[in-house]
Amino acid sequence: MLWLLFFLLFFSLLAGGCNRQKNIQKAQRPAYPFFEEMETSSMPKGKPGGIFIETSAAEPSTFNWLVSEDATSASFLNLMFDSLLSYDPIEDHVIAGLAKQWEIAPDNKTFRFRLRKGLTWSDGVPLTADDVLFSFACIYDPRFPNRNAYDLSVNGKPFKVEKIDDQTIQIQTPEIFAPFLRYMSGFPLMPKHILEPYFKDGSLQNQWNISTAKKDPKSIVTSGPFLILSYNPGERIVLEANPRYWKKADGDIRLPYIDYLIVKFVKDANASLIAFASGQTDIEGISPDNVAWVQKGEKIYHYTIYDRGPSTASSFLWFNQNPGKNKNNVPYVIPYKLKWFQNKLFRQAISYAIDREGIINGVLFGRGTPLWGPETPANVKWYNPNVKKYPYNPSLALQLLEQAGFRRDATGRLVDQENHPVSFTLLTNQENPIRTAMATVFKENLKQIGIEVLLQFIDFGTLVTKISDSYDYEACLLGLTGGGDPADGMSVFMSKGRLHQWYPNQPQPATPWEAEIDRLMVEQLTTLDEAKRIQCWFKVQEIMSEEQPYIYLVTPNTYVGLKNRWRNVKIPRIGPLVWNIEEIWTP
């Protein structure tokens, strides 16, 4: 009956949405002139039109690339903004993007990009080298703290960016920067003609927020395949095809083929899944525990479930090791608890106390892999299989805790040397049922060794504020998408990084092992010797596994369902299933 109730509720929501979509379906796309240097798709020619519908448990927090730090916001921005280069996950290399050509100087530090002649923003204003200069100026301006300034630097030194002419830009890195071209495929440009006034008055980080998207979506001009038609927080966002997009199909068809991409915000994962399984949406990530029953509807509702093997995503928990104080001079973490969290033996003991196989069998229905370090088996080239492992062993966990000065009292509780009962609160986001289930298993595992874990499930936005700004928390369970180049994790693994969650933005490395990770991360970043890069990254994985600042849990197998009606679908080994959404079409 519960499943039926979810179905009826969601079907009624979709039915209401269909009525509101009638006007959308009647809209006509403006036919702007093509230009000579447009990119022509190599995929089979398709038919324009159609609506692609999906759901999202979370909503974007911003449409301003400068301040975006969450995966949901990034997923929308990637649909709306393009970069100098693009990335082909099938062939695993960079390809032309807004820049039609690029050259690398013999020093391997100087790069010239020539923009396509005829490029414009979605409002028709030319997209030129001035926009590239402006975009770099934004990220490097100290008034606007952002993770990109750190990522696009080497040892704290920014890139040197020069305009050669309106179509040509030169970028010089201070040292060899191995992932430079890959980074340029993920560096969306910002429109100078729209955002420069806010750059000058210092309000840039407040622009293109949720309120902008709701009240004046057309003011958010884009360079990618889509722009915002409408945004109703808590309900849906509708993206429409960018009529001035720079890609076309063979002939006279401007991409993207689809007219509208509709994303409905559905926090309840069961309701979202039932909508897909009953044919109401086009794509859905399928959690391992739901694969079996969803597969039963493949022939009835004409979709296919794709098993993509182990995910690139990592799940982990960590303890707040930030020794700082808040504005009221109160420590972020109670001092005696901070002492626990900073003790490697304590962290290793917690890791041994976790039944990862139990999580896989009980939460993921056997469809997952234990995780011991930052990389998963999916990212074959960069995965180190020989890191230290922590198989479930409560007895060994207690031995390590005894070495660290803890003991169990007469009631079985674990206490420290000052007789404080070992208890802490673990946060995770309430929208993710897999994480809440893993947190529940974790609580029961630690109960077996006398540790009390208090669970707090909160919305993602509040959680991000706690772990990134107020530091008002003790422990947290989250994850990272992973799957890219080691350099993608600079802000996570470097001690100065904003996403170095257990103690971010360190003025100096807090520990010798963090200093060693800093050295290794810089070394892999500044060499073109791939074997050396792999060696450095393998060593980082070994240190992370030994020190356990992140206590890694499991990675689920990845399953994605897609309606059979879509053509030009090319499934990559890792990454989004419809990474080439501008090229997909339906008869």
Q: What fraction of residues sit in β-strands?
A: 15-25%
Arithmetic mean pLDDT: 93
Low-pLDDT windows of residues: 1-22
Number of helices: 20
User: Tell me, what's the shape?
Assistant: globular
Cα distance spanning the termini: 37 Å
Radius of gyration: 25 Å
Count of extended strands: 25
Description of the structure:
The chain is α+β, with helices and mostly antiparallel strands and 587 residues long. The protein has 20 helices and 25 strands. The strands form eight sheets. It has a five-stranded mixed beta sheet. Strand 9 and strand 10 (168-172) form a beta hairpin. Helix 1 crosses helix 9, helix 13 (344-352) packs antiparallel against helix 15 (394-403) and helix 19 (512-525) runs antiparallel to helix 20 (530-547). The protein is globular. The two termini are 37 Å apart. Mean pLDDT is 93; it is low at 1-22.
Keywords:
single chain, alpha+beta, five-stranded mixed beta sheet, four-stranded mixed beta sheet
Which SSEs are present, and which pair or pack?
Blueprint lengths: L1 H19 L1 H5 L12 E2 L10 E6 L14 H10 L4 E4 L4 E4 L2 E6 L5 E6 L13 H12 L6 H5 L1 E2 L2 E2 L1 E6 L2 E5 L7 H5 L7 H10 L8 H6 L10 E7 L3 E6 L5 E2 L11 E6 L3 H9 L5 E4 L4 H5 L2 H4 L1 E8 L3 E6 L15 H7 L2 H9 L3 H7 L5 E3 L23 H10 L3 E2 L5 E2 L7 E7 L3 H15 L4 E7 L1 H11 L4 E6 L9 H4 L18 H14 L4 H18 L2 E3 L1 E10 L24
Parallel strand pairs: 1-13, 2-14, 21-22, 21-23
Antiparallel strand pairs: 3-4, 5-6, 6-10, 7-8, 9-10, 11-12, 12-14, 15-25, 16-25, 17-23, 17-24, 18-25, 19-20
Helix pairs in contact: 1-9, 4-7, 13-15, 19-20
Pfam families: SBP_bac_5
Family: Belongs to the bacterial solute-binding protein 5 family.
InterPro entries: Peptide/Ni-bd, SBP_5, SBP_5_dom
